[in-house]
Specification:
Layout: H1 7-41, H2 44-93, H3 111-160, H4 166-197, E1 205-208, H5 209-226, E2 230-235, E3 239-242, H6 244-260, E4 267-275, E5 278-285, H7 292-295, H8 317-327, E6 331-336, E7 342-349, H9 357-376
Parallel strand pairs: 2-4
Antiparallel strand pairs: 1-3, 4-5, 5-7, 6-7
Amino acid sequence: MRPRPTIRLRLTALYAVVVFLAGGLLLAVTYALLDDHLHNTLTDPVADDLLADLRGQYLLALFAVTAIAVLLGWIVAERALSRSREIASVARAVSRDSLGRRIALEGPDDELRELADTFDEMLDRLDAAFAGERRFVANASHELRTPLTALRTEVEVALADPDASASELRATAEAVREEVIRFEGLLDSLLSLARSEARALANSEHVDVAETARSVAGRLRGEADAERVALALQAEPVAVNGDPRLLEQLVFNLVENAVSHNCPGGFGEVRVGRRGEKAVLAVTNSGPRVSADRVELLTEPFQRLDRRRSRRGAGVGLSIVRAVTAAHGGSLRLAARGEGGLVAEVVLPAARDEPGRRARQGTARMPRERRARSAAR
């Protein structure tokens, strides 16, 4: 079995070949100069004898220097590659359950140090991703178990009563239907979160955020009226490039969050506009006070502002907003209002319209926008 051509062996061979060629070239030039000088100053037989002795000494010196170069190259390569073995050792030891290990390579700030630092940064991202996955799985299993437990309880109660009347069975069926609807909504939310966190932008189209906001406000107008929340919309035309369904889900989650986590007689304000080369969607709502440390947790899955309110929703709305925003190269900022409620601001890269496109779209879309504004009122 042939030995593996290791990097150490190749570096040593390369170093030895370079020294051999450089030394041979230097000796050849020196020999040529001496040959010319000796033949000009001495008789030819004497010059030939001296040159013969010199050739032997030169060859011996060349092979001796090459041997020393091989030895030194082997040692230097070992010292240089010892740091790479440290990187390989940590890489082999890392697993799903030991992502906390880091190389933390010391020494000169060279390419190996850069490689080790890059590897440590990758481990940081993997550690955070796996920690989020474990937390998500734990929370999801709890959230999924709740409606299943309720379903099982309702069915067992109905089965335990052999004399249950038709009205009692109907009430049980309605309770089961309610839990099934809630379960379906939870699954839809989880699928939306998984898709958005995977940054799976199936489509990249020209999306008018203002038009999307008007459509969402129209859909949630009835719910806002039922909750006695005054929903206002200020939308200036601004477009982004992205997945229309994901962007609509982003806007819907923010506005629905502003309506559902509010108080009777409160307000919700949706503003869409342009800030330089960015499209800005800001949703402000009144409601209960939210502490600053609580705001930081709201984008984590299954975090709710108030668990005592309606059981509707899985607590992943803002998580989806965060994931969709990141998938479109934007940023999400949440801030608590001093008077109570929340301010959510999404900043996305604005689309660059082709010359004349905005004017054509504005003319073609004018009747529909007027109808949307009438519906929003």
